[in-house]
Amino acid sequence: MQKNFKENHLKPYAVKSINSKGRIYKEQEHSIRSPYQRDRDRIIHSSSFRRLKHKTQVFVNTEGDHYRTRLTHSMEVSQIARTLARSLGLNEDLCETLSLSHDLGHTPFGHAGEEVLSECMRKYGGFDHNIQTLRIVTLIENKYYQFCGLNLTIETLDGLIKHNGPVRNIDIYKKILKKNLFNNKIIFNTFPSLEAQVASIADDIAYNNHDLEDGLRAGLFTIKKFNSISLISKLINRHVKNIKNFKREIIVSQIVRELINTMVVDVIKTTNKNLKKSNPQSINDIYRQNQLIVDFSDKMKKIDGQMKDFLKRNMYNHKKVIINTNIGKRIINDLFKYLLKNPTKHIRKELFKNEQKERVVADFIAGMTDRYAINLHKKIK
After folding, report:
1. Residue 175 belongs to domain spanning
2. Number of Cβ within a 10 Å radius of residue 25
3. CA end-to-end span of the chain, whole Å?
4. Band of residue 5 on the pLDDT scale cut at 50, 70, 90
5. 13 located within any domain
6. How many structural domains does the chain have?
7. What's the farthest any 2 CA atoms get from each other in the chain?
8. Dihedrals φ, ψ of 168, to 5°?
9. Could you tell me which residues come within 8 angstroms of residue 129 by beta carbon, excluding any fewer than 6 positions away?
10. How many distinct helices (H) and strands (E) make up the chain?
11. Cβ-based neighbours of 280, under 8 Å, separated by 6 or more
């Protein structure tokens, strides 16, 4: 039986250690750390987590030291998720675990790298960074005598699988993961725990706001252009009196800070309304819901959409970003072709024993940092 681990303060519908479905491979629980604390610690001490510090968020890692990377993004998601969890009476440890691990499967060069690798793997089962995260934590990370992977709890795996909501088509999961590692303990087509929903919306809040800040730092757009976003326009008007007295960076930081706070407060208010309406009494009541409970208000959804549209037009499709994106795509494509022809020149032979060659190559490339991929590409050209 699981220990309490001081979880009496959690709401009845929160995920609790005492109700955990355990792990794929049975382990003795720790005397002072909850199962979700142990999951978090295993993520933090993994090689895949460390490599996130040299993986692109938007700007290639070599472009500057002040831009977000996948590592700093994951840490910022975690901070927002913990704030939400504490206010809502949810399990902070599980929220933190899901936040820190949600991007482990990302390729070098961000979504551009994933796009190319997905095309390269189209005939071989496909590639998806969310499913790659599952491969990493269940197969690729290798630190234990008894099993491959990190042997995370079922609740953490469930949250990672459903980071974007219920999974309606599990065929790609079967193709990429190859076998049922979850012992039928995960129901793919239900909504995830509130903790997983918190991690997902914290991801949204973090990357929208911090991409705005990084785009300004890079000079891709000006503060004035923000006027197309209703909420930001109001904040700019509030801070316009400070433009002559403070550096632009300070004003931008203030605006972003207030934006994050406004969005977090909106999520808390909206979620509490949804909880009152649905009146869940247990975690099983959460799984039985037919819609998200942790969510933005309709008004904030509109603002969130405005922010995404703004970033797509002014940042992700900016000439400077597109140039580097295309370079990254070419590097990934060249490396895939080269490694298929020379698989054991850079990859350990034993990895090919029980896995198709193309999948091993995809795993190897997906695990690269930006700079490793760039340096290897230089060597093979």
Report:
1. 23-381
2. 12
3. 57
4. low
5. no
6. 1
7. 66
8. -85, -30
9. 103, 105, 106, 107, 114, 366
10. 17, 0
11. 12, 13, 286, 289, 293
Residues 6+ apart with CB under 8 A from 50: 71
Percent composition of the chain: helix, strand, coil (DSSP 3-state, to 5): 65, 0, 35
CA distance 14 to 17: 10
State the number of CA atoms in the 13 A half-sphere of 208 facing the CB: 27
Is there a contact between 67 and 217 (Cβ–Cβ < 8 Å)? yes
DSSP letter for 294, please. S
Residue 149: strand pairing partners: 142
The answer to whether 163 touches 102, Cβ cutoff 8 Å, is yes
Given the structure tokens 């990934």, which residue do they identify? 332
- Within a domain: 15: no
Question: For residue 1, what pLDDT band results from cuts at 50, 70 and 90?
Answer: very low
* Residue 3: inside a domain: no
Nearest-angstrom CA–CA distance, 31 and 351? 35
| Residue 8 reports pLDDT greater than 90 | no
CATH code at position 199: 1.10.3210.10
Q: Distance between CA atoms of 100 and 80, rounded to whole angstroms?
A: 11
Task: Give the type of residue at 343.
Answer: P
CA distance 286 to 278: 9
Return the ∠ at Cα 305 (arms to 270 and 263), rounded to 5°: 35
What pLDDT is recorded for position 163?
Answer: 92
Residues 210 and 73 sit within 8 Å (Cβ to Cβ): yes
Encoded tokens for 68: 């977000």
User: The whole model's pTM is what?
Assistant: 0.93
> Of 231 and 247, which is predicted with more confidence?
231
Q: Specify if 142 maps to a domain.
A: yes
Angle (nearest 5°) at CA 169 between 167 and 173: 85
CA distance 200 to 156: 13
User: How many residues appear in the chain?
Assistant: 381
Residue pLDDT, tens place only, 116-160: 999 999 999 899 999 999 999 999 999 998 988 999 999 999 999
* DSSP letter for each residue of 70-122: HHHHHHHHHHHHHHHHHHHT--HHHHHHHHHHTTTTPPTTHHHHHHHHHHHTG
Give the count of alpha carbons within 13 A of 22, CB side only.
10
